[in-house]
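Repro:
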Amino acid sequence: MTLKTLRTQMLLVPAELVRTDNKPVLKFPSNFWYKDKIEYTLKQIEKVKL
């Protein structure tokens, strides 16, 4: 996997930023093929927050 591919897959995400319980949340289309990978990555990042 190249850096360009990673950038495309991780940064060009078709999602909508919405507020749920006054907390920003990304909503992905149901047919988004690597939705699970992105959600997993975001959860891991959330654990690392200082």
